[in-house]
Automatic annotation (TrEMBL):
BP term (GO), one: P450-containing electron transport chain
Transferase in keyword set: no
Highest taxon in the source lineage: Bacteria
CDD domains: fer2 (cd00207)
Similarity section: Belongs to the adrenodoxin/putidaredoxin family.
Cofactor: [2Fe-2S] cluster
Protein name in UniProt: Ferredoxin
Gene3D superfamilies, per the entry: 3.10.20.30
Single GO molecular function: electron transfer activity
């Protein structure tokens, strides 16, 4: 069961344990992090589930698809090299300890 640490927009840390196979977006929403709008529910059409993933585990996450990169280009908030759309990241036991930062806003 991967344990994820979210860095909230106000700097607080929130730790969430989720089942493998769940998307990072669902983990955040079900974990009560706030800060993700995820308006399209994971259909890759809104880019309001934007997060930053840092640390050594980032290399264990498959690279974004071309479609995800196109959507990230349209994200309202500053995009970093480690930006991802959280609905496209599926959590696995290998990602136990992942650290994810939420943007100040999705708009
Ligand atoms: S929830 Fe809409 S793109 Fe991720």
């Amino acid at each position: 069961m991967p344990n994820i640490t979210f860095i909230l927009a106000n700097g607080e840390l929130k730790k969430v344990a989720v089942a493998a196979g769940v998307s990072l977006m669902k983990a955040a929403i079900d974990g009560g992090t706030g800060g993700l709008d995820a308006e399209c529910g994971g259909c890759l059409t809104c880019a309001t589930c934007h997060v930053y993933i840092d640390g050594p585990l980032v290399d264990k996450i498959p690279a974004p698809s071309e479609e995800e990169n196109v959507m990230l280009e349209g994200a309202a908030v500053h995009v970093r090299p480690t930006s991802r759309l959280s609905c496209q990241v599926v959590l696995s036991d290998e990602l136990d300890g992942l650290v994810v930062e939420l943007p100040k806003s999705q708009y």
